[in-house]
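Weekly structure sync - notes
Attendees: PM, LS, DV (DV joined late)
Agenda: review two folding runs queued last week.

Item 1: First target. Sequence and structure tokens pasted below for the record.
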Amino acid sequence: MSIPVRLLVLSDVHYAAAGEQARRGHEALAIQNPLLRLAAHCYRKHIWLADPYSHNPLLDTILEAEPCPDLVVANGDFNLDTRFIGVSDEASMESARECLAKLRTAYGERLLLTIGDHELGKMSLFGGAGGLRLESWNRTVGELGIRPFWHHTAGAWNLVGITSTLVALPLFEPEILPAEKPAWEILRASHLQDIERCFDTIPLRNPILLCCHDPSALPFLQSLPSVRKRLPDLKATLLGHLHSPAVFDASRWLAGMPSIRFLGNTVRRLSTALQQARSWEKFRPVLCPSPSGIELTKDGGYLTTLLTADVASALRFQRHRLPR
């Protein structure tokens, strides 16, 4: 590979098509406690996103600004997931379908897709509605055509895409319907085998670029011998999920905190992930922000980098901020 490969990375587009646009205020409807509903409103308005339905044009901005990258990684979360059950909900499926159609029209075979947690469903931060649905998995893989695992080579470079929710499935166990638990466990076991087989077959000292939506998966990956022994060859791990460098930095600061088990399932899952977050650094994590960023810092955007033949040099990612 004598010519550098220009790589575009975007994540957490959270596109909202007409069906989800019609559900404004969806989170409040899932919260019974009025004080908790007020707290959620304040959190969304001043910290996270005041209007999550208004950011569709940011995807068009990226497509116009980046018409001809050599490779594109879109690192999950293509819908707004307003029913918290992923694309088994028809309106969420419509959003993901429209978002992916735009990406595929723009980039064709250059596009590499990973599965985010909102494709599969997860409980709401406030109210505890929703969770993983096996139908969402089947529709993501079957109808949307997103591969759960892939390995793409560019010269000596090995790009590996995984499904973070499967890897970190123990964290999501309380969100799984009891009747679906055996199927999820089978999917996870097969997925871990795919990952180990791939890491075993990549030639030693060939550089690896891992694409993983949710950093909660990284401690589970570290437990796999085939992955652990290849960490020296792992040049970077592309992450999404956290939306903002400010959230990523806070997660690093909170790494090692105790798991909190008395404030509901979502707090338990998040705090348990942070308890294990000290292992993230071994994976050389690089966060791709969401296009919108968060309300508090308005630091959304996307990343680009060059994959060169000089694999000994460090990867340098450029963050492109998007105005809001």
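Item 2: Second target, run right after the first with the same settings.
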Amino acid sequence: MAQVQKLNIKDAAEWALRCDLAATYRLCAREKWNEGIGNHNSAMIPGTELMLINPRGMIFHELKASDLIVCDLAGNVVSGKGELRKVAHFIHSRIHLMHPAAQIVLHVHPPYTTALSLVEGGRLSMSHFNDLTLNDRIAYDDEMNGVVLDDSEGDRIARLLGDKTTLVMGSHGLTTVGRDVASAYCEMAAVERTAMWQTLALAHGMPLKQLPDAKRRHHYGDFREVWDADLEFAAYKRILDREEPDYAT
């Protein structure tokens, strides 16, 4: 599957998308959400059936916009240097295929949400005000079938995601999707922070408060419509521009 083809990026929109996606790798690395050289974030190139994704073997800390490979949804590398990891193909391509609105798919192992996925019946409680926005957007996978190495398991995961935007994958990690990078990244960050606060609260050994169900926001659209995701993501990128500017090269 490994192929090497010279990058010829003429489209400014694709380059901007590459830079935004590269930013997610650096931000995830800063938060220690990645699993060594594993985990993967992808984006569909607008107007095509091709996706941008990280090549196998590169760690999030070092990824740059120009490192991302272009693959078709059959798993073939179309351009760029390196190969597509099999797990990445079967998770990302199947979600992109079954959910056209999922232009961005982020899959990492953030510590607090991953820890929640290890608990029998692990769920985000309706306890923090973030839950009022998040909890209707989250699906849970309580079935762990091992490493995702075929279309059938990728399809099962994609079906389970359904019309939700975040999937807590049992004994595994977290996947969040969105129409744009800012929505997907900021929703994932909000889920992980909320899981952290819930974990810390439970350490007190007292029952969690329960917010009234009537206060749910019942928002199923783009996360940026109910959250300052555009402003938040732009702020994160300004930090990277100062401290890790090579992400956008």
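Discussion on item 2: Strands lie at 3-5, 40-44, 50-53, 69-72, 77-82, 104-108, 138-141, 166-169, 173-178.
Action: LS to circulate a short write-up before next sync.
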